[in-house]
Known about the structure:
The protein has five helices and seven strands; from the N terminus they run βααβββββαβαα. It is of the alpha+beta class.
Amino acid sequence: xxxxxxxxxxxxxxxxxxxxxxxxxxxxxxxxxxxxxxxxxxxxxxxxxxxxxxxxxxxxxxxxxxxxxxxxxxxxxxxxxxxxxxxxxxxxxxxxxxxxxxxxxxxxxxxxxxxxxxxxxxxxxx
Length: 126
């Protein structure tokens, strides 16, 4: 096997849950192959560098092997190798998101009748 469609490989490597979502990510420009935005039908070859942006963060990976079949997660992880810089940036962003949650004030309880009226007024429904 010399090359595989990009959307199939992204689906097999478990970056996206469905091939349709992988193709949509390509169409929206969230996938770059060797520094260029890639279309879903682009051929991926061993050694290509991909930059993938999805819900999990931004990944910069090197393609190690090809697959058109989605298998278990342990097999999917052998298809690519994430760069150290990408891994560090992703972990740093996750730590920042976790730290921001600590400073978020939690409501004391249910809103009072007065609070509910203010919420409704703020939303523009009344």
